[in-house]
């Protein structure tokens, strides 16, 4: 009985670390995306953000499937999210187009990151009720990243509108059902 | 009595927002530091990180003095910290020197951010017992930023050692009394 308990605890601990390791992979991909963005490899940065989104999708799924959702995991997930879907996409759009606009370009970039941080802080203190309040930062970050693909075709001003709209959608009070 | 209550509530709400606004100022300074870092204005980036550290010091002090410490404020503070004292200093050292080392330089940069995120996630789920567990990310970020001043005088390899040491100090289990 004692050994069974020890074994169960050990397996549970390994399982718990699986989800957290995947969260740290997501964070590292976000960090890597930021560095590639600095180096001017914007297409690689875009790819890394999308792979981070996949990792983010899986860590939550694994945590739920294995019933190992932890408070530490939730907090770590938010830290990863602000890096991979807040800072990284904002810098991608900044480096891709917004830098041309000087101070307003910087403002929209920082505003996106700030709204993302507020969205995550609010999410962390609310109970899970089956709904998201405001657009999740993962979705906003992915949409911003996706919009980067149209940079040669769309008028540049539209990127300010995209960033400000996504920022407001993140902090707005509307609710959408979780899928 | 009713109006007194309404007035008290309103004043309390304004007071609560004071600390949160200062936290958002801290976050914005961090975001601004990252953008200046990308643009190659490393000295300005350094200055912005130090001003963010001052704002970070004040928001906590104000929250405690006015007895308006909130769970949202704590979460928002952590989000600001990962940006201003995790991402910004790591990118400053990367742009200043570590980029010369290619992949290992990127690794140490991301490792610093990852350890900072883990430190903050752990901090958020622990009760305040008057002690910090591991080096706070604010201190680690400021020390990394401070080390940037020696970039012309110190051997470049030392910056890898500084980054890895600060990273491990953040996640290590030693305890220091809060001041």
UniProtKB/TrEMBL annotation, chains A, B:
Its main location: membrane. Pfam families: CDP-OH_P_transf (PF01066). InterPro entries: CDP-alcohol_PTase-I, CDP-diaglyc--ser_O-PTrfase, CDP-OH_P_trans, CDP-OH_PTrfase_TM_dom, CDP_ALCOHOL_P_TRANSF_CS. The chain crosses the membrane at residues 32-55, 103-121, 133-152, 158-176. It is a multi-pass membrane protein. It is an enzyme of class 2 (transferase). It is found in: Endomembrane system. Belongs to the CDP-alcohol phosphatidyltransferase class-I family. This is CDP-diacylglycerol--serine O-phosphatidyltransferase. It comes from Cytobacillus spartinae. The lineage of its organism: Bacteria, Bacillati, Bacillota, Bacilli, Bacillales. The gene is pssA.
